[in-house]
Write a structure and sequence with these properties.
The protein has about 325 residues and is an alpha/beta fold. Helix content is about 45%, strand content about 20%. Strands 1, 2, 3, 4, 5, 6, 7, 8, 9 and 10 form a 10-stranded mixed sheet that branches. It is globular, with a radius of gyration of 21 Å. It starts with 5 loop residues before the first strand and ends with a helix.
Length: about 325
């Protein structure tokens, strides 16, 4: 007897170098009742041809070709085209182990969970180093218990962040109108996650590792300037504060999420400072606007910052945009 159907959704943009390995990983999954939805998001390389050719003759695969609209639209298209009882998102350029679906769907069904999260490895392709992301303990409970007892650990270990280390019950997503928001060009993952946690009634965390997250510095949106970055992470923070306000004893969680927000914003300040496509006056103006933003200033006061970020806090709170600019310019040249 087949178990619940699981749809694995793979958004792909110019992924010709990874598709062979991705499809191999999908076919190695030990769970039997699977549907694979490959979403070609307007690729300009051989992705389209390879998806069609490599999946031919396997009825478990659906291939969708759509105009380029970004990662959020690709994931949403995959949800719409899928038919599983559970939904899982897999990034084409990473790796998964064969028992990922089997182990975590079993937990979802055993505990009637809206979402099951699990551990993963970091693999830095620049250094070749693979690092275990060891959680230390799992979790089973309702949304309030997760907030009280596990959220801070989930943020510290980035279990909170991405969709690729979570299996979702489809009916939970549909009942709560949960989808990815294309209007936010970066960190759409954590925006989705915090909106999801506001609604989740039953959560499971599996502390075993199933996913290899490859860190690629070259061309990463995390390391280069993206227009709309600050708006995206601030929308995340707005939702994070709304989530915290659903709970009475929330000061530690607000501090933890404020620290995450400040870290994301300071990364944006670094990107702006070192973006040589903008003239200096424009960069300083953008930095000044961020430093004057009341949400960022409030978060700076709530966050627990490591010593090296104290200077940013002082410069930002005093409105010294030029000092922020000079600091990051200096660091980019002397601290590589």
């Amino acid at each position: 007897m087949l178990g619940s159907k699981v749809s694995i959704i793979v958004p792909i943009y110019n992924g010709e170098n990874y598709i062979d390995n991705c499809i191999c990983n999908l076919k190695k999954q030990t769970y039997s009742n699977l549907e694979f939805v490959l979403v070609d998001d307007g690729s300009t390389d051989k992705t389209s041809i390879m998806c069609d050719e490599l999946t031919k003759g396997d009825s478990r695969f659906k291939v969708i070709h759509k105009p380029n609209g970004g990662l959020s639209t690709a994931r949403n298209a995959g949800i719409k085209a899928s038919s599983g009882d559970y939904v899982y998102f897999y990034d084409v350029d990473d790796d998964v182990i064969p028992s990922l679906i089997e182990d975590n769907v079993r937990l979802a069904e055993e505990h009637n969970a809206d979402v099951v999260m699990f551990g993963f490895w970091y693999h830095n392709l620049d250094t070749g180093e693979r690092k275990d992301n060891i959680l230390g303990r799992g979790f089973v409970g309702n949304g309030d218990e997760f907030f009280d007892n596990y959220l801070q650990l989930a943020v510290d270990h980035e279990v909170f962040n991405a969709p690729w280390n979570k299996i979702y019950r489809r009916s939970f997503l549909e009942e709560n109108n949960l989808e990815f928001l294309p209007e936010y060009p970066i960190y759409e993952d954590i925006i989705f996650s915090v909106r999801m946690l506001k609604k989740a009634e039953k959560i499971v965390v599996n502390d075993n590792m199933y996913y290899v997250y490859y860190i690629r510095s070259a061309g990463s949106l995390i390391t280069k300037y993206v227009d709309g970055y600050f708006d995206s992470v601030t929308f995340f923070y707005d939702n994070a504060l709304d989530y915290c306000r659903l709970h009475t004893d929330n000061s530690k969680q607000i501090s933890k999420l404020s620290t995450l927000y400040v870290r994301l914003v300071t990364n944006n300040l670094k990107q702006i400072s070192n973006n040589d496509n903008l003239d200096r006056a424009t960069r300083i103006r953008l930095i000044r606007n961020i430093c004057r933003n009341e949400k960022f200033r409030s978060a700076l006061k709530l966050a627990r910052l490591e010593p090296r970020k104290i200077f940013v806090k002082v410069f930002a709170l005093t409105g010294n945009a030029y000092a922020v600019y000079r600091m990051y310019r200096f660091l980019s040249r002397h601290c590589r």
